[in-house]
Amino acid sequence: MLIAHSIAELRHHLAGFTDHSFVPTMGNLHEGHLALVRQAKPLADVTVASIFVNRLQFLPHEDFDTYPRTWDSDCTKLEAAGCDIVFAPSEQDLYPEPQTFKVQPPAELADMLEGHFRPGFFVGVCTVVMKLFACIQPHVAVFGKKDYQQLMIIRRMVQQFALPIEIVASETCRADDGLALSSRNGYLSAEERVEAVQLSLALQAMAAAVRAGETDFAKLEAQAMAALSARGWKPDYLTVRRQSDLQAPTPGAPLVALGAARLSSTRLIDNLEV
Q1: Which is catalytic among the residues 12, 33, 61, 116?
Q2: Is 20 annotated in the active site?
């Protein structure tokens, strides 16, 4: 496995390869990330994973400085998963000057749900992903469904900019009890880890109610929010939306239940297609 710390190194390593597959990460890797790499591996003749903690997508009060950096472990895991090249630029490498050109996704996609509670988050995500795409020039990129809204926004960005990149969605990886794997799960205490599965259980209950014919979505969402709050959570949202655009449900449209909630100091997100 080759490692590139600069764009020049990366392009040197990529020379001679025709098709590039790509998995972007912020490091602190778990089985969910590795599943993305394994899915990307047969899709091209070289597979690149990036490790870069992107300051642009963190709000001032969020955990940029304390976000776990686990370089040695990450490289060991990536090599075992079949990654060919790790692109791990420093901030100076990727942003040698202030990144004043930014990608602004449309408000109807980016200013609700995650974007409402983390203003500017998707500007940071789209900007770094666009820049990584420019560096790696992948033919295919694999993103996890756990970040459902992010996946939708990246797909739309690729479509609108006519980028020659296929965006492949990977199913959410879960622990045995159903908790969606996340780098931030490492912040949970032992007791919180046991409780954390309640978010996915709440989404399962919402999805089951919808499948059973429930159409009073406001009532369903209020009940789910109240149930989590009663357990000591601080939910941001538990909602049912259309899969196509995350707008309010309409008859016959495929739906998805989405949730974000804070358990003590750890904010968790999850979703479940109905």
Answers
A1: 33
A2: no
